[in-house]
Design brief:
The chain has one domain (10-144): YqgF/RNase H-like domain (Nucleotidyltransferase, domain 5), CATH 3.30.420.140. It has helices at 48-58, 77-93, 105-118, 126-144; strands spanning 10-15, 20-27, 32-42, 45-46, 62-67, 97-101. It starts with 9 loop residues before the first strand and ends with a helix. The longest helix has 19 residues, at 126-144. Helix content is 42%, strand content 26%. The chain has four helices and six strands; from the N terminus they run ββββαβαβαα. The protein is α/β, with parallel strands linked by helices. Helix 3 packs across helix 4. The chain has a six-stranded mixed β-sheet with strand order 4-3-2-1-5-6, sandwiched between helices.
Length: 145
């Protein structure tokens, strides 16, 4: 017997950057997520082929993009770049895209990496920070649902 869960959805989340884009995957059944990959970007232009492969592999029902904001909640240049990226995701893949406040996710991701480095779970490199930040962005989305 196969059970289907109406509210079970798979999501990919993105921590957009002009050089690297962190990617994480999660699912709504248990509200858990995992870092997946870091996609390169050149001058703010994502590697769309790599993103297409990740979307084909994980078959998400929706996408989540971190929205960078100043500490006072106002937007800055990267906010507009992240909005543009989310619009491009929606246009290319015809999936719902949710924006989530990503303040301090990179700081928290760095702290997690530093803690894990002492236990030798993750090598401390910038790409790892990006995909862990994407994981934190997705966890923020889950907590808001």
């Amino acid at each position: 017997m196969v059970f289907e869960y109406k509210n079970h959805r798979t999501l990919l989340s993105f921590d957009f950057g002009k050089k690297r884009i962190g990617v994480a995957v999660g699912q709504t059944l248990t509200s858990t997520s995992s870092p997946v990959d870091t996609v390169k970007a050149v001058d703010g232009k994502p590697d769309w082929e790599a993103i297409s492969l990740l979307i084909a592999k994980w078959a998400p029902d929706a996408l989540v993009v971190g929205l960078p904001l100043n500490m006072d909640g106002t937007e800055h240049d990267m906010s507009q770049a992240a909005r543009r990226f989310s619009n491009q995701l929606h246009g290319r893949f015809n999936l719902p895209v949710y924006l989530v406040d990503e303040r301090l996710t990179s700081v928290n991701a760095t702290a997690i990496l530093n803690e894990n480095a002492s236990r030798k779970k993750h090598r401390r490199k910038k790409g790892n920070i990006d995909k862990i930040a994407a994981q934190l962005i997705l966890e923020t989305w889950f907590s808001q649902q």
